[in-house]
Amino acid sequence: MATQHYIVDRSLHWLAACLILFILMKMSAQIHTINYQIKGQVLHRQDAIQTHALMR
């Protein structure tokens, strides 16, 4: 019986982890789109280049 509880626990854990990652990626995409619409194409492109340069 303990193994069945363990399997259910791990399944719920990974389901929740995947759901959280999906939600974060969706939020990031929505924020990116809003940022693009507010700033416009040129300013958004400059910010993206600067941000990616700082990441490296």
Binned, the helix content reads: over 70%
Structural class: mainly alpha
Categorize the overall geometry.
Answer: elongated
Number of helices: 2
Order of helices and strands: HH
Task: Provide a quick synopsis of the model.
The protein is mainly α. The protein has 2 helices and no strands.
Model description:
The chain is mainly alpha-helical and 56 residues long. It contains 2 helices and no strands. α1 (2-39) crosses α2 (41-55). The protein is elongated, with a radius of gyration of 19 Å. The protein starts with a helix and ends with a helix. This is Cytochrome b561 bacterial/Ni-hydrogenase domain-containing protein. The chain crosses the membrane at residues 12-29.
Question: What attributes does this structure have?
Answer:
mainly alpha; 95% helix; Cytochrome b561 bacterial/Ni-hydrogenase domain-containing protein; 56 residues; elongated; membrane; transmembrane helix; transmembrane
Q: What is the topology?
A:
Elements: H1 2-39, H2 41-55
Helix pairs in contact: 1-2
Transmembrane segments: 12-29
Protein name: Cytochrome b561 bacterial/Ni-hydrogenase domain-containing protein
Organism: Pseudoalteromonas luteoviolacea NCIMB 1942
